[in-house]
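Hi support team,

I'm opening this ticket because the web form for multi-chain structure prediction keeps timing out on my end. I have pasted the exact lines I submitted so you can reproduce it. The total is 296 residues across four entries, so I didn't expect it to be a heavy job. Is there a limit I'm missing, or should I split the entries? Thanks in advance, R.K.
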Amino acid sequence: MILSTKGRYGLKAAFELSRNYGLGPVSLKKISEKYGISESYLEQLFAKLKKDGYIDTVRGPQGGYLLAKKPEEITVGMVLRTLEGEITTSDCLNKEVCSRESICATRVIFEKIEKSINDVIDNITLADMYEEQKNILTEGKNEQETLS
Amino acid sequence: MILSTKGRYGLKAAFELSRNYGLGPVSLKKISEKYGISESYLEQLFAKLKKDGYIDTVRGPQGGYLLAKKPEEITVGMVLRTLEGEITTSDCLNKEVCSRESICATRVIFEKIEKSINDVIDNITLADMYEEQKNILTEGKNEQETLS
DNA sequence: TGCAATCCCTACTATTTCAGTAGGGTATAA
DNA sequence: TTATACCCTACTGAAATAGTAGGGATTGCA
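Hello R.K., no limit was hit. The queue was backed up. Here is the completed structure from your submission:
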């Protein structure tokens, strides 16, 4: 498992906010109930996303969390990096041996893996996710559920 | 860091064996000294690779480990899966909610990430790594080191 | 024949991360 | 003024990580 619940829960929750973009704040309680995620745990994830400027908050009754940017300005990569840290495959085992990096075959592999992940997560925004979800729904005609 | 030392050390060591393919066994001691990896720890990694049929062993003096298959028949993915387990991004949070998988936007993202990683690691063999290393060496003309 | 090199196997351990829980505090709409 | 919501810090059990320790079994070679 290369992603922990931090990234998995966090992305789900961020997507939930993006689906409510422009409609006012969404409370933690709603999101945590909807997905069965611990409220307090999710709170800690949102605190990080707020610190990095991706979400804003409104306190008091009818308050909650909302995106601080447009869904098309927030990538999956931004969310995952905030919550999981930089996506890397390898620190060098040994700095001295690794000064020979130009001939390090394993390093090349690790860089390819990193690049392939980053290519995916940096090129999908929350808005893209929403579009894709709509497409899936349109195609799956006997899927009775509405966007939920 | 999406790979632990298991996969990182193990791939390095497997590559070392592939570089000695056809030249007899290589001892743990040599490999662990060369890369500064704990002998006993590496031993445990090799035990897994042996169990999965990727390497063979020769006991006694001048013994050691050697590839059980041709370098072109062992992919990076085989080695990494043996040592790290299946590369996945997400078990479903909640099986009930996840029965709605067809409209789960985050799931689509996670599948894309998984696929991009697997595309890389399943399409590079140990033989490919060796070829690539030779190319790098040929290009870097003022690189004085030999393949080491 | 014996010894040293080598792999084989199991158990133990310190540290860190994960996935939360607990329990208070502060702002604010109604 | 009160209930609703976010804010913040500290704590915790369980698991994984990255090894260490210490024997045992083979076997090539002198």
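A quick check on our side: The CA atoms of residues 25 and 63 of chain B lie 6 Å apart. Let us know if the file doesn't open in your viewer.
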